Amino acid sequence: MSSHIVRAFDEDLQQLMRRVTDLGSMAERQIISAVDALIERGATLAQQVITGDQGIDRLQRDIEEMSVIIIARRQPFAVDLREIISALRVSNNLERIGNRAKSIGRRTIALHGRSLSQSNMRGIACMADLVLKQLKQVLESYTRRDAAGAVTVWLQDERVDAVNNALCAEILACMAQNPENVFACTHLLFCAKNLERIGDHATNIAEIVHYMVHGEPLRQNRPKADNIRLMPA
């Protein structure tokens, strides 16, 4: 981050970055709690995740308001303007990650008291580990202004898709084996999709970091492996 003649401008930008980092930490904790609640079928913890989403929404609105005030007061351009716009875009993705965690919490409550396949739950835990690693790494890249680190995260999205494909195929097989599994497995499919989308938001943030540092978007297409068929062709 460059140094400005007006010291207060530097302080504004640093405070904005800290708030985005705080929002990222909140989103990480929400994912961890949501997945823990799902694996243990803990309705109380799931409800805490749902309620906790309000805090993410409030902080995201604070970041929006602060960004608008900085733009109006400092009239930034070039790198400084990219810093502020990137903070807005990153916070948007983090707020949506919070929504995905909240959705998992709601489906966990719907699954309360039902038995689930241990193999399916191991798949959920594996996906959660992958996307949490993505999110942690990309937030570190944002804080350090590390475009190369962000690209490394961006390239990991294909692996998340591959794990999601395998997990969804396994869940669909459980549904086919026993119609009584359909209700629970349907909720698990949506939980897996929420985790996959969290990975997508992490890669969105990686693209934002690259733009923030270099002033241009990534030119290549994002690697994807989301070719699972949920219905016959």
What does this molecule look like?
With 233 residues, the chain is mostly helical. The chain has a single domain (7-214), classed as Methane Monooxygenase Hydroxylase, Chain G, domain 1, CATH 1.20.58.220. It is built from 7 helices and no strands. Helix 1 (7-40) runs antiparallel to helix 4, helix 3 runs antiparallel to helix 7 and helix 6 (157-177) runs antiparallel to helix 7 (182-214). The radius of gyration is 19 Å and the shape is elongated. The termini are far apart.
List keywords for this structure.
disordered C terminus, mainly alpha, Methane Monooxygenase Hydroxylase, Chain G, domain 1, 81% helix, 7 helices
Q: Which secondary structure elements does this structure contain, and how are they paired or packed?
A:
Blueprint: H1 7-40, H2 43-74, H3 78-110, H4 118-144, H5 147-155, H6 157-177, H7 182-214
Helix pairs in contact: 1-2, 1-3, 1-4, 2-3, 3-7, 4-5, 4-6, 4-7, 5-7, 6-7
CATH architecture: Up-down Bundle
Radius of gyration: 19 Å
Low-confidence stretches: 229-233
* Percentage of β-strand residues: under 5%
How many structural domains does the protein architecture include?
1
Number of helices: 7
Q: Strand pairing plus helix content: what structural class?
A: mainly alpha
Distance between the termini: 52 Å
- Could you name the CATH homologous superfamily? Phosphate transport system protein phou homolog 2, domain 2
The strand count comes to 0
Note the main sheet: none
Q: What is the mean predicted local confidence, pLDDT?
A: 92
Q: H/E order of the elements?
A: HHHHHHH
Shape: elongated
Q: Say what the CATH topology is.
A: Methane Monooxygenase Hydroxylase, Chain G, domain 1
CATH class: Mainly Alpha
Helicity, in percent?
Answer: over 70%
